[in-house]
Amino acid sequence: PSPGSVGPETVAAATDPYRPKHLTVRGIGAGTAGRRSRAIATTGRRIGATVGATGSLHLVETIKAAAGKQAVRRATDDRRERIDLRSEDLRIAVREGREANLVLFCVDASGSMAARKRMTQVKTAVLSLLLDAYRRRDKVGLISFRGNAADLALPPTHSVDVAAARLDNLPAGGRTPLAEGLLEAARVVTRERLRDPRLRPLLVIVTDGRATSGADAVGRSLHAADYVASLGVTTVVVDGESGPLRLGLARQLAARLGAEHLPVAEVSAEALTASVRRHTHHLNGVA
Questions:
Q1: pLDDT tens by residue, 265-280
Q2: Percent of the chain with pLDDT over 90
Q3: In sequence order, which residues have a C-beta less than 8 Å from that of residue 29 and are 6 or more positions away?
Q4: pTM for the whole thing?
C-alpha cells in the first residue's frame, strides 16, 4: 500500500465482557442524574446549605441564619416572643449525588494494534466500558483512527447497542494517525459542550501511543495532546501495548495529557483488585 493508506485489514471480535474499573470525571458537576460522577443533585447525602427559596429546607442552617438577627428584629417589634423567621433566612440543603456523563471512546485501529489477540483484548475492554456506561445512564460516542484519518464512527448517543455494533465491525490496519484521532476527539468534546454545558465528558483513548502517519507524526501528535489537555477534559489512556518489548509511548502520552494511564489488562475491576492484592501480599512478605 502507498504511504498513509490503510493497508491490509483485520476484524477481531470481542469476547465476553466483564465488570470494568469505575472511571469518573474529576470534580463535582451538576448534570443529569446518573450513576457515574459526583454532582450536586436533588437527592443524595447533604453536604451543605445555600441561600434559596426552592428545594429541600435545611432547618438547622435556616435557624442559625436567623438567630443573629433576633435582637434587631425584636427591637423593632417587641410583640414577637418566638423566633422571627423571614424569607431572607431560608437555607436550602445542598446534596451530592451522581450524574451521567459523555463517555467518548477514541480507539486506535491501526496496524500496530491489529494483532488479533491484542485487538480482541482491546475490543473486550471497550465493550465492557460501553455496557458499564449504559448501566450508568451515560451518553457514548466512538471515534476510530487508522491510515491517515480519524472517523467519528458514532456521534454521541444513548444507544449503546449501536455503539457495540460499530465496535464489533471496526477493522484494524494501516498507519497510526494519532494527531488526527486526538483532534477529532477535541472537536466532538467542544461541540457537545456547546450543546449542553452541564454534560461533562470523560475521554477514553485506547492506543499503544505510536504515531506513524503523515509528516512529523510524532510532533503533531504532541501538539494535539497539548491542545486536548488545554480543554480540561478528564482523560484516561488505556494502554494497548503488549509483549516483552514495550516502548512506553502510551504512558508518555498520558503524562502529556494529564491523564490516568491504565494498561488494558487492568480495565477489568477483578484484574485490578487481584493486582493490588498481589502487591500488598508482596509488601507484607518483605516486611
A1: 999 987 544 444 444 4
A2: 63
A3: 37, 38, 39, 40, 99, 101, 198, 200
A4: 0.82
Q: Which amino acid is at 115?
A: A
Q: Which of 209, 272, 22, 20 is nearest to 124 (CA)?
A: 20
Domain covering 101-281 assigned CATH 3.40.50.410 in the classification: yes
Q: What per-residue string of b and e applies to 199-222 under the rule 16 or more CB within 10 Å gives b?
A: bbbbbbbbbbbbbbbbeebeebbb
Which stretch of 87-91, 98-102, 131-135, 193-197 has the lowest confidence by average pLDDT?
87-91
**139 Cα distance to chain centroid:** 11
Q: Which residues contact 149 (CB under 8 A, 6 or more apart)?
A: 177, 180
Is the model's pLDDT at 79 over the cut of 70? no
Q: 25 near 101, Cβ under 8 Å?
A: yes
Q: What is the largest CA-CA distance in the chain?
A: 93
Going across the sheet that includes 260-263, the strands are 149-157, 139-146, 102-108, 201-207, 234-239, 260-263
What is the C-alpha separation between 202 and 129, in angstroms, rounded? 12
Query: Which whole-number Å values give the CA distances from 270 to 13, 20, 236, 273, 274, in the listed order?
Result: 22, 8, 19, 5, 6
Extents of the domains making up the chain: 40-97, 101-281
Q: Reduced to 3 states, what is the DSSP secondary structure of residue 106?
A: strand
